[in-house]
Structures are given as C-alpha cells and as structure tokens.
Amino acid sequence: MQRIHNAIQLTGLSRDDLAELYAYPTDLQAPWVRANFVASIDGSATSGDLSAGLGTPADKTVFSILRELADVIVVGAGTARAENYGGARTDPRLRRALYDRGIGGHRDGAPPPIAVVTASAALEPGARLFTDTEVPPLIITTAAAPQDRKQQLADAGAQVVEAGGVAVTPSGLLRTLADLGLRRVLLEGGPHLFGELLEADVVDELCLTTAPILVGGTARRISLSGHEFRAPMVRRHILLDDDGTMLTRWTRR
C-alpha cells in the first residue's frame, strides 16, 4: 500500500485489501453499527435530491465492499422510496470467504437483506424492494402500524417485525437486529434515522466519502436530529483516489 501524507492511495488496492481495511470487529456479541454516507466538499448529502448524484467510482467500490461485509443493510423508509431501493447484489464466493475469515459475509454466500425502518409500514408492495431482490426484505415497524399494510408487505414476501408500540426507537431497532442474529449493521440512510442513532449514541463508526464537487443549494446534511450533540471520533484511515475522492473511516473515541 502506497502511503501519501498518512493517507493510502486507493489505486492498486485489491478487494481483499479493502475488506481488511473495513473489517468488522470479530466475535461481536451485540450489533456494531456502521454508517456509510457520501457528501460534497461543501457538506451536501445529495445532488439532484439523490445521494447517487454524488457517487464516484471510488465511492461505488467501497460501497460495494461494505455491503459484502455486512449482515444487514438498514435504511429509513424515505430513503428507500427516494432512491428506489432494490435488493443488494453481492458476490457469493466473496461473502463465503469473508465469513470464513470471521470479518463479515455469510456462510452460504447470500446477500444481506435490506431492512427498512418505518413506523407506519408505508411502503408499496410493488416496489423494487420486494420485486428485485434475492432475499426477502426486512420491514421493521410498529404495533400501531395499520395491520392491512403489514399484511400486504408480508404477502409481497417481506419479513415484517414489530420493534415498538408507536415508534421504532434506536434501542428497539438494535434489539430486533440482535434477536435476528444480525450484528454487522450497515446504515445507508437517511439523515433523520442517522441523526436519531447518533443522538442515542449507538453509532460505532462512520465511513464518509467526500466527493470532489461543490453543490450549493439547500440540500441536507448527512445527519439531522432534534438536538445538537458532540460525539468525538477517531480517524482510522483515509483513502485517496486520483480524481480527488477522499474516503475516511471514523470510529467512536
């Protein structure tokens, strides 16, 4: 690995190298929450109202590796709808190899399910989430959500789990994932869900891509919460790509 001013040049890194750099801790006894976001240089979380508008080749490479490592991919319902989420597409052989090394993946090579957090179960059964996937999505909702909606999503093939009475709290979400044996958690959005988890102090790490672009406008940040908080973080690594993309990994101090 070529290091430049304490950073690692992304060019030339293999998938195995990246898997080691982003490996989850081994022998997890509770969910480890990793968030992955992209932002512009001036702090925008979207371009054209979509995070995909900020994507670069380097970001897409790391995005893929993080999915290969994860047990579950968590998103809020708004993000699932806006980004038109479908099921994850991963490499079965790599997933099995990562599992054998104890750092991620799946013993059968299956892709991680998409878990959508929605207190009201307000999702369309005909969406790509249900029709374009290799594994059933996981809908994490509440007892108060309309029963007919929950039944429609179950009929569409989803696993529907109630994780609270009228709201899905951070503790309720993580308890549900733990009960399902899903400990390597990858959070991909959105800002409100990320902000709630940050405010509850349950986010273990952030993988942040800074895209080499200025956006301006009124786009949101990567996290939004009801109250300001300060969560000190420690930088674990910086990856640099030739086009100016910078990928950082931060963990809780």
Explain the layout of strands and helices:
Blueprint: E1 3-4, E2 7-9, H1 15-21, E3 32-40, H2 57-69, E4 72-76, H3 77-82, H4 92-101, E5 114-117, H5 128-131, E6 138-141, H6 147-155, E7 159-162, H7 170-179, E8 184-189, H8 191-199, E9 205-211, E10 233-240, E11 246-252
Parallel strand pairs: 2-10, 3-8, 3-9, 4-5, 4-8, 5-6, 6-7
Antiparallel strand pairs: 1-2, 9-11, 10-11
Characterize this entry briefly.
By secondary structure, the protein is an alpha/beta fold. The protein has helices spanning 15-21, 57-69, 77-82, 92-101, 128-131, 147-155, 170-179, 191-199; strands at residues 3-4, 7-9, 32-40, 72-76, 114-117, 138-141, 159-162, 184-189, 205-211, 233-240, 246-252. Strands 1-2-10-11-9-3-8-4-5-6-7 form an 11-stranded mixed β-sheet, with helices on both faces.
Would you kindly provide a written description of the structure presented here, covering whatever features stand out?
It is a single chain. This protein is α/β, with parallel strands linked by helices and 253 residues long. It has eight helices and eleven strands. The chain has helices at residues 15-21, 57-69, 77-82, 92-101, 128-131, 147-155, 170-179, 191-199, and strands at 3-4, 7-9, 32-40, 72-76, 114-117, 138-141, 159-162, 184-189, 205-211, 233-240, 246-252. The longest helix is centred in the first third of the chain and has 13 residues, at 57-69. It starts with a strand and ends with a strand. The model has no long low-confidence stretch (mean pLDDT 94).
